Amino acid sequence: MTSGARPFGEFVACLSGPLIWAAHFFVVYGAESVVCIGATSPAGAMRLTVFAATAIALVAMAAPYVRPVRGGRSGAPEAQRFLSSVARWLAILSAAAIIAVAAAAVRLTACASPAG
Amino acid sequence: MTASTAPTGLPNSAPRPAGELEDLKRIWASPKGWRIVSDVNNTVIGGFYVGTALLFFVLAGILALLMRLQLAVPSNTFLSQETYNQIFTMHGTVMMFLFAVPVVEAMGILLLPQMLGARDQPFPRLGAFAFWAYFVGGIVFFGTLFFDLAPNGGWFMYPPLTSTQFSPGVGADFWLLGIGFIEISAIAGAIEIIVGVLRTRAPGMTLDKLPMFAWTMLIFAGMIVFAFPAVILATMLLELERAFGWPFFVAAKGGDPLLWQHLFWFFGHPEVYIIFLPAAGMVSMIVPAMARAPLVAYNLIVVALIATGFFSFGLWVHHMFTTGIPALSLSFFSAASMAVSLPSGIQVFAWIATIASGRMTFSTPSLFVLGFLFIFTLGGLTGVMVAMVPFDWQAHDTYFVVAHLHYVLVGGMVFPLFAAIYYWTPAFSRRALSERLGRWTFALMFIGFNVTFFPMHMAGLGGMPRRVYTYPDLPGWNLLNLISTVGAFMFAAGVMVFLVDLVRNFRPGQSGHIGNLWRAGSLEWMPAHPFGMRSIPVVASRDPLWDEPGLEKAVEAGCWYLPGSATGRRETIVTSPIEALPQYVLRLPGPGWPPFFAAIFTSAFFLLLTVKAVTLAALCGAAALVMFVWWMWGADPKPVMKVDIGGGITLPAYASGPLSHSWWAMVVLLLVTGSLYLAYVFSYLYLWVVSPQVWPAPDSLPPALWPFASALLLLVSGGAANVVSRKVPTQNGSRTGFSAAAGLGILALLAALFVELWGHLSTGLDPASNAHAAMVAMGLFLQLQIITPVAVVGCFMLAKLFTGHIDTRRRAVIDNLTLLWLYAVGQGLAGLLLLHGFPWVIA
């Protein structure tokens, strides 16, 4: 009665939404630190970075819809449905959080002081 | 003698053979009298843990009352400025580090095994070590108040206020070393909880049937793994700066005090959710029992918990909105701060829907849950307010923030905890707590809390700054502060009534508990023994006691799995992490002294270092090491390959590699060390962004020969680790090649560090000269920190090999060591790339 499931891979697949959110967040936050030091046109570079990172992240969010999380090989359909459902809802919430973060870059200019 | 028959569908017959239950009781018996401190069973350690955490809650609460007395009237002289600063620092520190996190871990250790259908935690001695380390470290830390040695820089310990220039005494060192050590204890508890939840569930308890409290504890522990290393690194950096002058936070030498704030709040903001999520888990257990209805939207609550856990790591800069960070970056954190309110809202609506779908019983736990919903929701609303940058600029460092954080923390954690104590007491006590006194407790605490903290919103909006020991006589502030002081004493009166209730009614013991007073549906309400349930059932639903009426009787009659001791020792069933299929029988250790003394000596090591008693500290460190070796020597018992657990199922009583629970613990430990190293990489890059002028040109770096030689040695060491993993000698085989590979491989690891150090010294590295040099030295220090355990465990492995305790089957030590070893190789290579490659890239 042992399991043949590869649990780490399944856990990572289930958490793909928030993991992508985390990657996107650190890329856009880190990018502002870098472009403010070196870019000749920081505002344009920042907008481009945020746009590209957001587009890639939102496309990647489709992962749990394209390949459902398996949740093991024992044929426990409820567990499988549960993990797939969790992965998909997490992707939706994470996509909303990514859009909220990226929306800031539409209105605000990079490297500007908060005091205006 | 009655003929025994197996009831339909159950694996074991009843009645059980004579003596089986008595054997179980004998094997799981706790030591008597003062020897109880050597016990490791989760019911005993969990009880100690909860009791100690409540003691710290009361002590920190008394400090709060002293502060409120001082602030009751303007220009008061009840406390001096210095005493007030010590008390306010200790109040925050004790509440956060010695009460909030430990009490949640304590509840996990106490409740989880029974809730999951396990006999104990997977590492009972680690749990005992974590508790005693916390107990000794916490008591000594609190004791510094009585010797005028307590820290006074606030619980957040911002440099430069806490640098040697402005805090020259040992108070800050007590904070840095003491709290750093207690955080290690918290991480030990987190490892225990993660492995326990993932690997010791009852058969059939797939993740969709996991009790919600277990889900929250799993996420809580996962968050500790990623959040605590940041503050551990911060405490190491500040202590090194204070002790040796390495200028991580000194702006004149390329450091930056804001680095501390980044690292501290990367821990500090998730900490809020680390505290809140388990409390939410308690509420999710209590609400269905009180409403007599299954939890609504189970799947969505799990989604909300996971999302909250992740999003909470994107909020840390909202504590730093006024530090001059660019507006766009502030907006990223502001957006994340608002995004986290979505999953929090999902949980609140799910609880309200559950209450609406059933018929709520208004007992004391229900009242505390309703109080939690009211207070926490208000705290959440003001949280959304301070997440707005413009509003935060107005409210920052005012009493508005004090009000907000107490609404979130007390509402989100203390009220659910009191609900939990009233709710679960019947599972551990021969008498339930009093409903009458419980209602008084709730009323006094609820009214007292709001009377204390609601006026602080107005005081803050009126401009009253926080973190001040007194204030001028201003008409807008005086009355509000007096009202807050009256409310604080009302809240304290509620806690006092609770303590009276505990003394009068709480009667813990190993039998005769009240039991399932609330007619709840989860497994912890089965008849409890020191060994958990009599037999371990297959779990087929989320609320097994509601859905399977005969379950309790069959379990208690021993008709399910493992009704006795199959190996003559304490044991539990290890199952697969997702599907909960039985994999092996884990033999558990019984009472013993090594965890207790290891904790005492480790605490002494850190505390003696604080007061610069280096020789004595070294002796205690050596004694702790001896205790660890004694502890670990018996941790890998001889394999038993077939054990009957009932119903014709036989399992091995040994596992190594990815199947083993210890391998999983090592993976979690590596996530901790990896997080620590990532926090270091962040710090290195951050200081470069702030002070690129102190970063050297490529021609000032050590010649390329040195890092290449170091990398080569690391690769050789990695190859040796691979050989050690693959060429384990048989019982009678030659050990020479294996031992040579292990010895030379570990020497190569040490040599790689030595070569790297030599290369930097050849360029005249002086860690006190500037932030870059300090960061280089820190990188080498972190590498030494990971190599040392590899070397110690390597020697331990060879000792076990030559005493015949290791062979091709009995190899858990080897598998765990090689994981750690390969990680050390990887970290070493990453360090070379960072310290030598990055300066080339920026050039």
Total strands of chain B: the figure is 4
Q: How would you name the oligomeric state of the polypeptide chains in this document?
A: heterodimer
Strand order in space, largest sheet of chain B: 1-2
Q: Radius of gyration of chain A, rounded? A: 18 Å
- Strand residues, percent of chain A: under 5%
Shape of chain A: elongated
What pattern of helices and strands is seen along the backbone of chain B? HHHHHHHHHHHHHHHHHEEHHEEHHHHH
Please estimate the helix content of chain B: 55-70%
Query: If you average the pLDDT of chain A, what whole number results?
Result: 85
What's the main sheet of chain B like?
2 strands, antiparallel
Largest interface (C-beta under 8 Å): A-B, 51 and 45 residues
How many β-strand stretches of chain A?
Answer: 0
Entry summary:
The complex is a heterodimer of chains A (116) and B (843). Chain A is mainly alpha-helical and 116 residues long.
